[in-house]
Write a structure and sequence with these properties.
Blueprint (H helix, E strand, L loop, with lengths): L1 E8 L11 H13 L24 H6 L4 E7 L10 E8 L9 E9 L12 E8 L23 E10 L5 E4 L5 H14 L11 E3 L4 E4 L9 H9 L8 H14 L4 H10 L5 H5 L7 H13 L6 H8 L7 H10 L4 H11 L4 H28 L9 H10 L10 E5 L3 E6 L5 E5 L5 E5 L9 E5 L4 E5 L6 E6 L6 E7 L3 H9 L15 H15 L4 E5 L3 H6 L11 H4 L20 E3 L9
Parallel strand pairs: 11-13, 12-18
Antiparallel strand pairs: 1-2, 1-4, 2-3, 3-6, 4-5, 5-6, 7-9, 8-9, 10-11, 12-13, 14-15, 15-16, 16-17, 18-19
Length: 593
Amino acid sequence: LLSGYGLVVNLNGTGGGIIPTDIASSMERQMQLNGIGQGADFDQGPLVDPSTGRPLTASALLQSEDVAVVLVQAVIPRGSPRGRNFDVFVNAINATSLEGGLLWTTPLNLGPPSTFGGPQTQIIGEAYGPIFINPFAEPGLDPSQDSGALFRSSGRILEGGTITAPLAAQLAMDTPSHARVQRLEQSIRSRFPETRFDEGPAARGVDDVTINLLIPTEYRENPEEFLSLVEHLQVDNRFAPEYGRRYVAALREDPRLAGRVSWLLRSLGDPGIPFARELYNERDGRLRLAGLRAGAKLGDPLVEDGLLAFATNPRSRERLEAIRLLGEADTGPQTDAALRELAASGELVVRTAAYESLAQRSEIAHTNRLISASSSLGAGAALNRREAELRASLAFPADPVRGVSRRLVAGKFVLDVVPFGDPMIYVVQQGRPRIVIFGEDARIAKPTVIDTWSDRFMMIADRADDPIRLLYRDYRTGQMALDPDAPDGLAELADYLARRSAPEFDAPGLDLSYSETVGVLHAIAEAQGSRLAFATEEDRLIAAVTSFGTDAGNRRRPEIDAASEPPPDLPTNPREPRRPRVVPLNTPPAAAR
């Protein structure tokens, strides 16, 4: 658990409420240390009193109606390396709404929040960014008239946190032994050889008890996976074939060991592949999946037929995990064709799981294309894998094999287009903000009347061949936007809603936030009825923070206890494969019912 108190600016007169004395004192001290209220030369923004043009004092800034103090919380997996991003949850201390707010850079300490004078723990990371609040509430509505006002006073910043001072991951011996430490260090380094992208070797012995672990770059987005593999390594990994035979024999005697044996086979590295293959054709589905899971993670292309058998079987309980594994497996076009069919199916969780795997395979393919293309330009222009992966995570073109495309929209979210099956809008609430448009021809069906936000947003087409007329009035400025020919394609419309209209841009736009764009798309889906489904990924961030609950405040040493294990619902434990959790928010098309 990470937490801290931060400052949110750019509110619309919904802040400036009463702050508890201890929190106010801590915030004033923090701002004064950063130069606020000390005569710093600011010429605009929330730091300046508009009536005098002089910088606000820290106390006056806290009382501003456009500023709020918030509690910032996050949960990170053990071993999270420097630079890793994570979602943060913010809850207002003195504001009725955080709509439109921007969190200033806030230090995050380990454990429950603490004010100045209380116990201070290590600063692990920081948080910053625009706040994503309930997208289904009307923007700009007076909180006193809004039955959903409670949901406006909290929100999240997707990937708004960054690890700045990671905790050391260490392996400790139960019994001191220099020889055992040395053998384990060699075993870990052999299984995870250092690459030019790593900051050092994966293991370094410190004394006869402790081995320091360094998360390899390959596992920086899933450090738990690396640590679990280390936990399953043998002290001496030179006899991998003998261990592999023992693992498979033990599994055949007791199929309940499937989960653990799968990890043990993976811990062997490439020598574990032949033993995983022995399980691909077992009659017991638990044994087959244990082998296929290990083979897929080890990069064995022969897992394709076995995983496809699970993924295309509607009666299989392992169907979703098989679909997820296909996203990571090094398999051929047959996998992509099967995932495309599943992405067009009528079952919502299968459809979204297939899309996630297709998108992952598209990212991998585009990463490889970027590296290959940059290498041909010479050493100075060559991209390393991390740079290529970052670019591919933000945009990739549709190709004939996978068909999924992605682009970054106005720097606010990524927009994925999945041209298969019935039209559907899918919104992701974890990680990078993402809107997904499904459908071979995902358009607004006409005639239509879409009216939301107390008549401040309207889209009307009287006949099937009429263009869509759009009217929007910004609650902040009162300015009116009229467009007699707004886009009717859902992907083009999402781009139009978020894009900022300016003289330097040829295309017009409404400059809506991610929350507001999602809200409009949901209103469109509601108006379209069964012709357009709308689904959102279930939120797990609040559940993860809440899981620390009442006992979090009683922990004497949060720097130890809070990091001892992940909360039960946090999808970072690789022992429990993440299953897509999708919530339909309106009536799905007939094919999906």
